[in-house]
Automatic annotation (TrEMBL):
Identification of the protein by name: Arylsulfatase
Keywords of the record: Calcium, Hydrolase, Metal-binding, Signal
Region of interest called Disordered, as start-end residue ranges on this chain: 27-46
Regions of compositional bias (Polar residues) in chain numbering: 27-42
This enzyme's EC code(s): 3.1.6.1
InterPro entries: Alkaline_phosphatase_core_sf, Sulfatase, Sulfatase_CS, Sulfatase_N
Family listed: Belongs to the sulfatase family.
Length: 834
């Protein structure tokens, strides 16, 4: 028995030793300085057996510290950068007319990729980027704001698809995320969580950025980890683009001071250049007069630059300007010479502002790159810099807009005089702007179409550069292999020597769907065949399929700049196109009529890929998906109650007063000496409402997208007795009610609002129109103060309420946005400017 026990103990000891050895422990095992490189099959790694000695007392025992997990020896730092809404013709590095010296720096120190692709839209591209899997595979077939209850579209990255953040963190990297998120379900933005879909739950130990698709860069809806912060308060020159760079530089410096040998993975994704286009003024002014030539000549200049740089083939054809011909499904953009002088002046300013935003964003990226060099870490850092998560945005309408919220609500044309009022401050704090589609098309040169269009390279072709000193030696080289955003994760894993896990937190992992691009780093493989031979594309029913140099795609049935306001034909009725992109870089020569057999083959291949990656069911609806109920913590709730001061309740968890009757009741206590301040507000300068006391008098303001404001207050048209008329509320308890009756059914209708105090009516007004779709994107519901921007200019922030809010109640009626009304929403919205 003793012999058997001895043999068993020896076997267990040998197995434990072999397990330790498999983990590649360095240093003296059990010592505080010991480290281990794990095999990475299981994350986090299982705990190692305690190999010290435990006796009755500490002096007779021997401690044993578990070794610290580190990546494989020589694993580089990773700086992954991606800008927003920039098509192939934006950056100077890829032939654009806007200088991007930081991107040039990486291109000169590494490689430029000329056939690299996104998904055509923000959060889908980002989900694919951090998981290495197709966007439908990880629930992001569309942006989270349009999520539906199908696996490919629910905006949930399931735990069987761990992100690169989780993988690198559990292999010993310090992981951080700066800038735009847009991969947390919109109904989980609140402090209620859960946090598994926040950056922290996706493996990023530090997050500094904004949660949704966009934010005001002057007063951002900003988070540090799970907490909303307000770094802009009291700072006159604040802009998030600079603040984010400052924060990343500080983080890397602090990390270097605390653990100089610990490698980092920094995911750096600024809001530039998504709308609102908000650069500092000096950056806009750098481009004054640079776009007076107009968009067609700008296209010609860009394609000439691209050929000169060698980043498009010399025989590339410039696709035709859309003038309504069949290949553009009736999409038509005005020629520059057809514009009035006032239009030219306004549209040129829009482009100057956008260009300033591009250059400003690149400049701050350059500061982050320089900080890596200043720390002495550049030689061991792989830098991946992607220009845009999709093509340039066409969401600014044919004219551009000083307030993008108007376009999001279907108002596609604004009075010229209203636009010109903002000519001087375009891009500054009093605007939330976007540019005219003519510029969008130009900045996607040489391709057709724009952001949102997954079928054409104007929506999906991105400039991308990679540097890795000592490993990429073909400095300034160009690579033409066909690759996709899902190929970044496997590239990072290969260069770091980290294995894709088979199991994470006890859950078996689905395979990563990308392929590593590291084979292209060697100069000998500069012209090697692409290791990605097939890739599907799909967004809003527009489809594309690449295979071995061929590309088949659908023709978008309507211009994307209509923003879903027009019903689309059945998906089965879409026209298909066919291109041999090996010879036709810009998708200019449609071969569908000449090669019907090839087209049929490609269509069948698309369907095969769609079934494989959760693309089905295909859905080309936009507005109905935007208005789809989602499983928030307040879903279906019609009565909301608050007490005291409550700031920062996200839009998805706040009561929605859109297209319905509603009653807001505030039970307050006014102290001796009177009270004033904000009782409740949602939104701000660019659309929203507020109920407050001003000089002690009740006021309700409704801001119709910064186009018109309506104000109810005691003393203006009041029809009550003189005791309340125009006077401040006396100390004591009062009940303020704002009751609104909506003139539905349908969107953007008007209604009648009544403001009353203690049962006595103070003011009654009827308005013709209301906001139908989006009152606010990122300005929260604030109770007892106003945190971001005011609904009008009659008060100063934070306008904290100086009384007591005993009880605040919202009672909501049923939505009157009927299914039929949803389809006709664009017509109702157009009337809002009549």
């Amino acid at each position: 028995m003793k012999t058997r026990s001895f043999l068993m103990a020896a076997l267990v000891s040998a197995l434990a030793l072999s397990s330790v050895q498999a983990q590649q422990i360095t240093g003296t095992p059990g010592s505080p300085s010991a480290t281990q490189v794990i095999n990475g099959n299981q994350l986090p790694p299982p705990p190692l057996e305690f190999r010290g000695v435990i006796k009755e007392t500490a002096p007779d025992s021997k401690p044993y510290w578990p070794p610290r997990v580190v990546p494989p020896k020589g694993a580089p730092n990773v700086l992954l950068i991606m800008t927003d809404d920039q098509g192939y013709g934006v950056s100077g590095s890829f032939g654009g007319v806007i200088p991007t010296p930081a991107m040039d720096r990486i291109a000169k120190a590494g490689l430029r990729y000329t056939q690299f692709h996104s998904t055509a839209l923000c959060s889908p591209t980002r989900a694919a980027l951090i998981t290495g899997r197709n966007h439908h595979s990880v629930g992001f077939g569309v942006i989270g704001e349009m999520s539906t209850g199908f696996p490919g579209y629910d905006s949930v990255i399931t735990p069987d698809k761990a992100t690169i953040g989780t993988i690198l963190r559990d292999n010993g990297y310090a992981t951080s995320w700066f800038g735009k998120n847009h991969n947390t379900p919109t109904y989980q933005y609140s402090v209620a969580g859960p946090y598994d879909q926040w950056p922290s739950g996706m493996g990023f130990e530090y997050f500094y950025g904004f949660m949704g698709g966009e934010t005001d860069q002057w007063t951002p809806y900003l988070f540090r980890d799970h907490t909303q912060i307000f770094p802009f308060v009291g700072k006159k020159d604040y802009n998030l683009i600079t603040d984010m760079a400052d924060e990343a530089i500080k983080y890397m410096g602090d990390l270097n001071a605390a653990a100089p040998d610990k490698p980092f993975f920094v995911y750096y994704v600024p809001g530039g250049t998504h709308s609102p286009h908000q650069p500092k003024l000096e950056w806009r002014e750098k481009f004054k007069g640079k776009f007076d030539q107009g968009w067609e000549k700008t296209r010609e200049q860009i394609i000439a630059n691209q050929k000169r740089l060698g980043i498009i083939p010399a025989n590339t054809q410039l696709t035709p300007w859309p003038d309504g011909q069949a290949e553009y499904a009736g999409a038509k953009l005005p020629k520059w010479d057809s514009l009035t002088e006032i239009q030219k002046k306004l549209y040129a300013r829009e482009a100057e502002n956008f260009a300033g935003y591009v250059a400003y964003t690149d400049h701050e990226i350059g500061r982050v790159i320089q900080a890596v060099e200043d720390m002495g870490k550049l030689d061991n850092t792989i830098i991946i810099y992607i220009s845009g998560d999709n093509g340039t945005s066409a969401e600014g309408t044919l004219e551009g807009t000083f307030n993008q919220m108007t376009a999001y609500n279907g108002i596609l044309t604004l009075p010229e005089a209203e636009q010109l009022l903002h000519y001087e401050d375009w891009g500054q704090a009093k605007t939330y702007p976007h540019m005219a589609v003519g510029w969008t098309w130009a900045f996607d040169t040489p391709f057709k179409w724009t952001k949102q269009i997954a079928s054409h390279f104007g929506g999906t072709r991105q400039g991308m550069v990679i540097s890795w000193p000592g490993h990429i030696k073909d400095l300034g080289g160009i690579r033409t292999q066909f690759h996709h955003i899902i190929d970044i994760v496997p590239t990072i894993l290969e260069v770091t020597g980290v294995k894709a896990p088979e199991e994470v937190n006890g859950i078996k992992q689905k395979p990563i769907e990308g392929v590593s691009m590291a084979y292209t780093f060697d100069a000998a493989n500069a012209k090697a065949p692409s290791k990605r031979d097939t890739q599907y594309f799909e967004m809003f029913g527009n489809r594309g399929i690449y295979h071995d140099g061929w590309y088949a795609c659908t023709t978008p049935p309507e211009p994307v700049w209509l923003l879903g306001g027009k019903p689309l034909p059945p998906i089965s009725d879409y026209k298909w196109e066919l291109y041999n992109i090996a010879d036709d870089y810009s998708q200019n020569n449609d071969l569908a009529a000449k090669e019907p057999a090839k087209l049929k083959e490609m269509q069948a291949l698309f369907l095969t890929e769609a079934k494989k990656y959760q693309v089905l069911p295909l859905d080309n609806s936009i507005l109905p998906r935007l208005l789809t109920p989602r499983p928030s913590a307040t879903a279906g709730q019609t009565v909301f109650t608050y007490t005291g001061e409550k700031a920062g309740i996200p839009v998805g968890n706040a009561p929605s007063i859109l297209n319905k009757d509603y009653t807001i009741t505030a039970e307050i206590t006014v102290p001796e000496g009177g009270a004033e301040g904000m009782i409740v507000t949602l939104g701000g300068r660019f659309g929203g409402y507020g109920l407050f006391l001003q000089k002690g008098r009740p006021v309700f303001v409704y801001n119709l997208l910064d186009l018109e404001r309506f104000r109810w207050e005691g003393g203006v048209g009041a029809i009550v007795d003189q005791d309340l008329f125009g006077k401040a509320l006396k100390p004591g308890k009062h009940t303020i009610v704002f009751d609104f009756k909506y003139d539905g059914p349908g969107p953007a209708k008007g209604g009648t609002g009544v403001l009353s105090v203690d049962g006595k009516e103070l003011d009654r007004k009827t308005i013709k129109h209301t906001i139908p779709i989006l009152m606010s994107i990122d300005e929260t519901l604030d109770v007892g103060l106003d945190t971001r921007s005011g609904v009008d200019d009659s008060y100063e922030l934070p306008f904290r309420f100086t009384g007591t809010i005993d009880k605040l109640t919202f009672k909501l009626g049923q939505s009157q946005m009927t299914a039929e009304a949803q389809k006709a929403a664009a017509e109702g919205l157009k009337r809002a400017t009549d």
